[in-house]
Specification:
single chain, two-stranded antiparallel ribbon
Length: 87
């Protein structure tokens, strides 16, 4: 969920830029085609942000935090450098 939310939130600015360029290149026309494209782009941008941000928040809470520790050179239970991962 976390990665999916990041991807969706990252695509929202792309959608906003495409919508802005579409609005600028319409030249202020009030035809239904230009207005429909701009409104669709704004709705898409809002949907990407509206779904992506909660996915980031919920996904961050669910993923366990992985930690790694490097043991000292001399330890009572090992005779060298060891690497331990807790998943």
């Amino acid at each position: 969920m976390f990665v999916g939310g990041i991807v969706m939130a990252s695509l929202a600015p792309v959608s906003m830029w495409v919508t802005a360029f579409n609005f600028l290149f319409c030249g202020g026309e009030t035809s239904s085609g230009c207005t429909k494209n701009v409104v669709t782009g704004l709705v898409l941008t809002g949907a990407l942000l509206g779904a992506g941000i909660p996915m980031i928040v919920i996904g961050a809470r669910r993923d366990p935090v992985a930690s790694a520790r490097v043991m000292p050179w001399v330890a009572p239970h090992s005779g060298g450098l060891g690497l331990r991962f807790d998943l």
